[in-house]
Write a structure and sequence with these properties.
- The chain is of the alpha+beta class.
- It folds into 2 domains: about 5-250 and about 390-430, 2-methylcitrate dehydratase PrpD; about 255-380, 60s Ribosomal Protein L30, Chain: A (2-Layer Sandwich), CATH 3.30.1330.120.
- It contains 19 helices and 7 strands.
- Strands 3, 4, 5, 6 and 7 form a 5-stranded mixed β-sheet that branches.
- A hairpin with a 3-residue loop joins strand 5 and strand 6 (about 370-375).
- It starts with a helix and ends with a helix.
Length: about 425
């Protein structure tokens, strides 16, 4: 595979030419991302980027999905909506590339689609090509650089592909859009963000912004110099392998690496009615990377998301882990904090060997009277343990509310089926 092949796919591939399940997966990820963005704008810290977009990237007619009705330039909407999409860390992900393709592709695709008054079908096709190319460039970058970087470093190319597709670029312009985006994409040393969490996270907002600006520059004649597709030994599986069907959807707003442990604890508590006050230890056997989620007393929402002990402790004491557990009142709850100190970790070599293809954990809860052990657990939402349609819609309703009525979710889902309609119909709740 090379840049020319990526250009050909970005310009011509359609969901209609793909297997039937691809369409359902793309629509599910769009709806999931819209819900995540809506909830993300209620998260502390996102206002900083929203206000930046209003102050410095204004003058356009592209909608901020914060229910204010405000509009900014297309690149401003991509930046702010992209940051909001990942603000809760509850957006879609892809195990193989270890990142979040939808959050970095859907916001710029939606911004560009609104900018050109595209149809729902045109928007969905742009998301499709952006998602597929984003994952592949991520795999290529990781192979060439031999270092794990976060979504912004490779998602920018997917954002550029989606934007350029909607802007109806020529093959030459598309090639330069991809090249400029991949070359100028933010460097995102993800393990630093895991071990010392900040609002930078996966660099998703900046990846989305870089992709849109790169496309705009390429459209004006700015040139790139190829992409990593020309260097990496990445086989041409376009049209054969559909990565959008291999991704996962998250049930909990925290790092995917911690979710198997959260899932296992919730299962044990539900099955055995465990009294949290009787728990003496929670031992989590998992893969090595997950043990870097070391925060036990989260000072910020980002600390809470990039912790393993905290969401497990919240699951143990509150029997849930939701956006409410990001709040200061939860992060300073003495019962949860005491439980975090009873969480222990051990690297399980067998589970480590299966990462990143699988994200697994096994949990042992010891109480003063009995010991409870989970099976090896993968979090719900993985390809082998998908969320049902009902559960996906329940998640979207939970995220949409209280910004909007829960009924908005059904209206959005219905609109995504009306592929000849204008994308502005999808944006109606936020306008």
């Amino acid at each position: 595979m090379n840049t020319g092949r990526a250009v050909e796919f970005a310009q011509s591939a359609t969901i209609a030419d793909a297997p039937d399940d691809v369409e359902a997966h793309v629509k599910a990820r769009v709806l999931d991302t819209l819900a995540a963005i809506t909830a993300g704008y209620r998260q502390a810290g996102v206002d900083i980027v929203r206000q930046y977009a209003r102050a410095h990237l204004d003058g356009g007619k592209t909608t901020l999905l914060d229910a204010s009705g405000d509009t900014v330039a297309v690149e401003g909407a991509a930046l702010a909506n992209g940051v909001a999409a990942n603000a809760l860390d509850i957006d879609d992900g892809h195990r193989e590339v270890k990142g979040h393709p939808a959050a970095v592709v859907v916001p710029p695709a939606l911004a560009a689609a609104e900018n050109v008054d595209a149809s729902i079908q045109e928007f969905l096709n742009a998301v499709f090509v952006g998602y597929e190319l984003a994952v592949r460039i991520g795999l290529a970058i990781h192979a060439v650089d031999d270092i794990y970087t976060g979504t912004g470093s490779w998602g920018a190319l997917g954002a550029a592909a989606a934007t350029a597709r909607l802007f109806a670029f020529s093959p030459e312009q598309m090639a330069h859009a991809l090249g400029v985006a991949e070359y100028h994409a933010p460097r995102t040393p993800i393990m630093r963000g895991v071990e010392n969490p900040g609002m930078t996270k996966d660099g998703i907002g900046w990846g989305a912004y870089t992709g849109v600006v790169s496309a705009q520059l390429a459209g004006a004649g700015f040139t790139g110099s190829g992409t990593v597709f020309d260097e990496a030994s990445v086989g041409d599986t376009l049209g054969e392998v559909f990565h959008v069907t291999k991704g996962y959807l998250k049930p909990y707003p925290c790092c995917r690496w911690a979710q198997p442990g959260v899932e296992a604890v919730l299962t044990l508590v539900s099955r055995y009615d465990i009294d949290p006050e009787s728990v003496e230890s929670v031992r989590i056997a998992t893969f090595e990377k997950a043990t870097h989620l070391q925060t036990r007393q989260p000072a910020t929402p980002e600390d809470a998301q990039y912790s393993y002990a905290y969401p497990v402790a919240a699951a143990l004491t509150r029997e849930r882990f939701t956006q409410a557990e990001h709040a200061e009142s939860a992060r300073t709850d003495p019962e949860i904090l005491a439980a975090t100190e009873r969480v222990e970790f051990v690297v399980d070599d067998a589970l480590d060997e299966q990462f990143p293809g699988e994200c697994l954990a096994r949990v042992t809860v010891e109480t003063s009277e009995e010991t409870y052990r989970s099976d090896v657990t993968r979090s719900r939402g993985a390809r082998d343990a998908p969320l049902s349609v009902d559960v996906r819609l329940q998640k979207a309703r939970r995220l949409i509310s209280p910004t909007f009525s829960e009924a908005v979710v059904e209206r959005l889902a219905d609109t995504l089926e009306r592929e000849s309609a204008s994308v502005t119909r999808l944006l109606a709740p936020w306008q």
